[in-house]
């Protein structure tokens, strides 16, 4: 009959209890084995008790307190005069003592894994005097372990990896289980390991927990992952021991044990001959069951007639071989190509060389398809020259193009007018002869770059383009002229033969041998007595004086005509006039004043005369300012007339108000409140028509009357107020009356409104609103009728 787990634990408890009871003689007080006890100041006596350790089993499941042991003193005669007390760890809460008998019991279930032992102190007291009859002694209660904790894998579950094709016994990972039971007592904490799932591929060492491979040549490509269940059992694996399990996921990592292989021995692709260079022709891939770096490929063309026309590279993401074009394809020249391509692993593992060569070969055939191509010119760029003196219709050169297709369709030519906007040239549509269509000017445009279009007669959509550079040859058609606008001066004290200006010339033409200019004075200026010209023979000339004593008051400006001739064939010439001004110069010959009037003025007027003229001008300015000031002070009184509405007149004043900062001009609160009372003040610059002493009391009258009276009062108060703003200031009347039939009186709002409102009622408001009635009314006297 086998014992279950609970029955086995009870059996162990009974055995332990028996052992404890049998050892009580050692725990009780024994006078015969006591050691001497010394106490200062007293005669030496023997100690009446000694202690041994008490033991108690953990996890007691009974209902009664668990007996631990007994304390007894030789002094105790059994008459109840001695009482026992207990103190220390767990006293009264866990451990109790019978003060009469000294029996110790545990009142709670104990767990060794929580606390392995308790240290307590015991003492025997005289019950009457409550004085100790024995010195206090310390003892220990040890909790005796039972197998109540199963092994646990604190780091589980585990993951590990091992290379595929590893030999038997290759270490994968080590697992460790811990048991909370007492490792020094029995076999409760002695663990052995076993494998429950994962055989026959893996095994585990019972004592160390090291997992190893158990089969050779495990192939990742066949199965790449294994789930193992490892068990740890205490009691050295015997029956009745507790166990715990964990899972271990083992992944086979890849090695390069599979050579690349092309799925097919040959491939064929068709490509049009118009495919541009660097375009992709095809993608091929050699299959490799490996992954990562072990599956990286290298492709190369090892043979064939397309070695210089095609190339192959590898796509690092997909490991495909990409075949691209290196040169343009021409169906008329070659219709097909054959390539021998090799694929090989980049990283080869020497351990698996016996599995075969880690490379493979395949054949790729590329068929070139014919397409309708545009005409092709015999040259990519044509260079032509023509003289700028060429007449219209002069032949410049000829371009030629042909259809490269087998059909060899006839070609027609034209000029792309976007490159010849001025239409200087024409081309014969059939022959390709280019001629001039307008007169040419090299100085305007020395080189014309035009594009010639060649299109097939049978398919005009096929257009070829040729480029023509036409250089214009120069002729001598521009006369020389001054290189710049010269500002020439001569000092009044200049000496004869003094150089006053060096001149040069420019010519828009561009002769092959360069420019050569000749300078001279015109025939009418050759014999003048003032200046002469010297040709320096280096395309420059110098202007020199012939006399001295130039005077501005006699002649301030001289005009010298200069004749310039170029070296062209035929030569051209021009006459350019040099303007020379006479100036007053300082001692260094630097011109100071060249104005003749400034020289003449001091001769006619003295300094006193100039001062008198300035004084008269200042006097006139003062008189004008006084007149203006007096007229501003003497203003016309503003008299109000019932028959004359001043608002119909526009009067301009140059006074400006204080702007937004002027808060003293008027009281906004007064304009917004009908009931405010303001003291009437007299305005000095206006003669009022009526002086108001008090404000009339408002009665319940129609809204239009209230509005009219309100405006009228505000106008009169502004007229008689001495603190009122200038005439051009803005008076704000923010009152329209209660339920006013006039609604908004804004002229801006009225003009922008598209409504057909009737404003005839304005004529009923009195003469003050007559102008508005004339502008907006629809009666016979309307302003716009």
TrEMBL record:
Compartments in which it is found: Cell membrane
GO biological process: one example: cell morphogenesis
Domain of life: Eukaryota
Signal peptide from the UniProt entry: 1-27
One of the Pfam families matching this protein, by short name: Cadherin
Cellular component per GO, a single term: catenin complex
Keywords: Calcium, Cell adhesion, Cell membrane, Cleavage on pair of basic residues, Glycoprotein, Membrane, Metal-binding, Repeat, Signal, Transmembrane, Transmembrane helix
InterPro entries linked: Cadherin (IPR039808), Cadherin-like_dom (IPR002126), Cadherin-like_sf (IPR015919), Cadherin_CS (IPR020894), Cadherin_Y-type_LIR (IPR000233), Catenin-bd_sf (IPR027397)
GO function terms (MF aspect): beta-catenin binding; cadherin binding; calcium ion binding
Keyword Hydrolase: no
Name the record gives this protein: Cadherin-7
Source species of the chain: Platysternon megacephalum (big-headed turtle)
């Amino acid at each position: 009959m086998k014992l279950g787990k609970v029955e086995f634990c009870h059996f162990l408890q009974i055995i332990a209890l028996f052992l404890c009871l049998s050892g009580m003689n050692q725990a009780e007080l024994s006078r015969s084995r006591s050691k001497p006890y010394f106490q200062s100041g007293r005669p030496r006596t023997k100690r009446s008790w000694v202690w041994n350790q008490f033991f108690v089993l953990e996890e007691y499941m009974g209902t009664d307190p668990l007996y631990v042991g007994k304390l007894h003193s030789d002094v105790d005669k059994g008459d109840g005069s001695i009482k026992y007390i207990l103190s220390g760890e767990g006293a009264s809460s866990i451990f109790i003592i019978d003060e009469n008998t000294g029996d110790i019991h545990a009142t709670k279930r104990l767990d060794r894994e929580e606390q392995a032992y308790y240290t307590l102190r015991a003492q025997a007291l005289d019950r009457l005097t409550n004085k100790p009859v024995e010195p206090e002694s310390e003892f220990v209660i040890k909790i005796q372990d039972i197998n109540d904790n199963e092994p646990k894998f604190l780091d589980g579950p585990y993951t590990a990896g091992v290379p595929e094709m590893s030999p038997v016994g290759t270490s994968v990972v080590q697992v460790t289980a811990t048991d909370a039971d007492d490792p020094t007592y029995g076999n409760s904490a002695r663990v052995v390991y076993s494998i429950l799932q994962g055989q026959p591929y893996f095994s585990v060492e019972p004592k160390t927990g090291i997992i190893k491979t158990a089969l050779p040549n495990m192939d990742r490509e066949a199965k790449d992952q294994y789930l193992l269940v490892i068990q740890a059992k205490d009691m050295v694996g015997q029956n009745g021991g507790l166990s715990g399990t964990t899972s271990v996921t083992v992944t086979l990592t890849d090695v390069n044990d599979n050579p690349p292989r092309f799925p097919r021995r040959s491939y064929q692709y068709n490509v049009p001959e118009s495919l541009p260079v660097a375009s992709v022709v095809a993608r091929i891939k050699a299959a490799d069951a490996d992954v990562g770096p072990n599956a990286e490929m290298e492709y190369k063309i090892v043979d064939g007639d397309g070695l210089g026309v095609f190339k192959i590279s590898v796509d690092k993401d997909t490991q495909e071989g990409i075949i691209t074009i290196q040169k343009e394809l021409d169906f008329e020249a070659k219709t097909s190509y054959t390539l021998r391509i090799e694929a090989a692993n980049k990283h080869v593992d020497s351990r698996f060389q016996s599995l075969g060569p880690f490379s493979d070969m395949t054949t790729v055939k590329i068929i070139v398809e014919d397409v309708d191509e545009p005409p092709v010119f015999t040259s990519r760029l044509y260079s032509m020259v023509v003289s700028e003196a060429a007449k219209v219709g002069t032949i410049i050169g000829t371009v030629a193009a042909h259809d490269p297709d087998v059909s060899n369709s006839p070609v027609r030519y034209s000029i792309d007018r976007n490159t010849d906007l001025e239409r200087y040239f024409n081309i014969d549509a059939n022959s390709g002869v280019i001629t001039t269509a307008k007169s040419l000017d090299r100085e305007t445009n020395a080189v014309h770059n035009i594009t010639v279009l060649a299109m097939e007669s049978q398919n005009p959509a096929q257009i070829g383009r040729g480029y023509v550079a036409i250089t214009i040859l120069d002729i001598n058609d521009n006369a020389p002229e001054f290189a710049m606008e010269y500002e020439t001066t001569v000092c009044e004290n200049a000496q004869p033969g003094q150089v006053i200006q060096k001149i040069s010339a420019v010519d828009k033409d561009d002769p092959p041998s360069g420019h050569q200019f000749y300078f001279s004075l015109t025939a009418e200026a050759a014999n003048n007595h003032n200046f002469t010209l010297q040709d320096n023979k280096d395309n420059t000339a110098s202007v020199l004086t012939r006399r001295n004593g130039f005077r501005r008051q006699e002649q301030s400006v001289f005009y010298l005509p200069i004749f310039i001739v170029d070296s062209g064939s035929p030569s051209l010439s021009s006459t350019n006039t040099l303007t020379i001004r006479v100036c007053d110069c300082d001692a260094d010959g630097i011109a100071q004043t060249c104005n003749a009037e400034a020289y003449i003025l001091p001769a006619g007027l003295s300094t006193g005369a100039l001062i008198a003229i300035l004084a008269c001008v200042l006097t006139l300015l003062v008189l004008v300012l006084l007149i203006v000031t007096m007229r501003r002070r003497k203003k016309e009184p503003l008299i109000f007339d019932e028959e004359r509405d001043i608002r119909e007149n526009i009067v301009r004043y140059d006074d400006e108000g204080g702007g937004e900062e002027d808060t003293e001009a008027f009281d906004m609160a007064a304009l917004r409140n009908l009931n405010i009372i303001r003291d009437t003040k007299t305005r000095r610059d206006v003669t009022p028509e009526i002086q108001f002493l008090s404000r009339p009391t408002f009665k319940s009258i129609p809204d239009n009357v209230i509005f009219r009276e309100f405006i009228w009062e505000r106008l009169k108060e502004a007229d008689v107020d001495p603190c009122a703003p200038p005439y051009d200031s803005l008076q704000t009347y923010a009152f329209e009356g209660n339920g006013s039939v006039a609604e908004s009186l804004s002229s801006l709002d009225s003009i922008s409104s598209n409504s057909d409102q009737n404003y005839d009622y304005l004529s009923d408001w009195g003469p003050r609103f007559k102008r508005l009635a004339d502008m907006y009314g629809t009666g016979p006297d309307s302003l716009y009728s």
